[in-house]
Amino acid sequence: MAFKIIVCAKQVPDTNVIKINPKTGTLIRDGVPSILNPDDANALEEALKIKDKHPDTHITVVTMGPPQANDLLFECIAMGADEGILVSDRAVGGSDTWATSNTLDAAIKKIGEFDLILAGRQAIDGDTAQVGPQIAEKLHLPQVTYVEEFNIDDNMKDITVKRQLEDGYEIIKIQTPCMLTAIKELNTPRYMSMKGIFGEKKMTTWNAKDIEVDLNTVGLEASPTNVFRSFTPAPKGKGVILEGDTEKEVADKLLVNLKAKHVI
Amino acid sequence: MNFQLTKEQEFVRKMVREFATNEVEPIAADIDQEHRFPTETVEKMAKYGLMGIPFPTEYGGAGGDHISYAITVEELSRVCASTGVICSAHTSLCCWPIFNYGTDEQKAKYLPDLLSGKKLGAFGLTEPNAGTDASGQQTRAELVDGKWILNGAKVFITNGGYADVFVVMAMTDKKKGNHGISAFIVEKGDEGFSIGKTEDKMGICASSTTELIFQNCVIPEDRLLGAVGEGFKVAMSTLDGGRIGIASQALGIAQGAFDVTVEYMQQRKQFGKKLSQMQALQFEMADLKTRIEAARLLVYRAADMKDKHMKYSEAAAMAKLFAAETAMKVTTKCVQFHGGYGYTKDYPVERMMRDAKITEIYEGTSEVQKMVIAGQTFKK
Question: Does B197 contact chain A (CB < 8 Å)?
Answer without folding.
Answer: no
